[in-house]
Amino acid sequence: MSDCILNLLPLRPEERAAFEEAAPDAVHLYAGRRTASPEQYRRATVILGSPLPADLARCENLRWFQSMWAGTDEYTAPGVLPPGAALTSSAGSNSQSVAEHMLACLLALCRRLPQCRDNQSARLWKDLGRMKTISGARVLTAGAGHVGSEFALRCRALGAHTVGLNRSGRPAPGFDETYPLEEALDRQIPRADVIALALPHSAATAGLMDLRRLELMKEDAVLLSAGRGSVLDQDALVRVLREGRLWGAALDVTVPEPLPPDHPLWDAPNLLLTPHLAGGMRLDITRDNCVRMALENLKRYLAGQPLENRVL
């Protein structure tokens, strides 16, 4: 049986032609995430893009789904994908976007830009005193994957010493040192001037940065979180910030999302909050990467080769 490819990616005309050239014997269907019909889902043996999880219940013929997102939490819950369907991600597609956002937040905190903006709104001309630099700083990244490496490369270019933590401790691009996360985290936290969390959600990472570990940080260290909000104990962070223990923190991810208006994080001192906008399709290069990855994986699928970034 020939494949029916439901393509939900935001494609340019020349990119549609490239997919059709790669799979000339397949039926190609094109739609948006919210405009694909139940019949298109029913026919699809391959889906490329970001369908609503509820729509996948209609995919009785699905063999392989390539998500355009790096994270696939919404698709891995029991019952979302039909039995036997392969799932691949676009891991690495938004690494530049997230790394640049993390660096921007870090520099903003070091130079006290959020406080400057507050003073501007209040029409207050005030010298905020001592600032920080990441030149010569020890930057520890928990999660030495695609995003962590891109962030470390940028920090190192500005003169930082970069330390990465991953499951194996194997060397990774951008890091001067790498260690196993489980073994080295408590040992490395007190030495770090900056700690960046770029970890996915899992049973092993949930609550990883708890009160005990936050209290291991240097009094004037900076904390960044841009992986999944579940990694951080948010109540503990509010507590240590109110105690004046850290220079500052920046969160792009929280639990829950959106953050309720009465959540204590909104009022925590020296905290920069952004609404999960570090990644996504906000940069053209991210979209380009997603399309390229999907096309390359389609060629591998048709050739019977192992798929890249396989999740299931």
Describe the structure.
The strands form two sheets. Strands 8-7-6-9-10-11-12 form a seven-stranded parallel β-sheet. A five-stranded parallel β-sheet has the order 2-1-3-4-5. Helix 4 (95-110) packs across helix 6. It has ten helices and twelve strands. The radius of gyration is 22 Å and the shape is elongated. The mean pLDDT is 97. Helix content is 31%, strand content 16%. The chain is of the alpha/beta class and 312 residues long.
Short key terms for the protein model shown above:
about 300 residues, five-stranded parallel beta sheet, about 30% helix
Question: How widely separated are the two ends?
Answer: 23 Å
Major sheet size, sense and barrel closure: 7 strands, parallel
The spatial strand order of the largest sheet comes to: 8-7-6-9-10-11-12
User: pLDDT average, as an integer?
Assistant: 97
Give the low-pLDDT segments: none
Order of helices and strands: EHEHEEHEHHEHEEHEHEHEEH
Compute the gyration radius: what is it? 22 Å
Shape: elongated
User: What is the SS-derived class?
Assistant: alpha/beta
Describe the oligomeric state of these chains in a short phrase.
Answer: single chain
Helical content stands at: 25-40%
Strand tally: 12
Please state roughly what percent of the residues sit in beta strands, choosing from under 5%, 5-15%, 15-25%, 25-35%, 35-45% or over 45%: 15-25%
Count of alpha and pi helical runs = 10
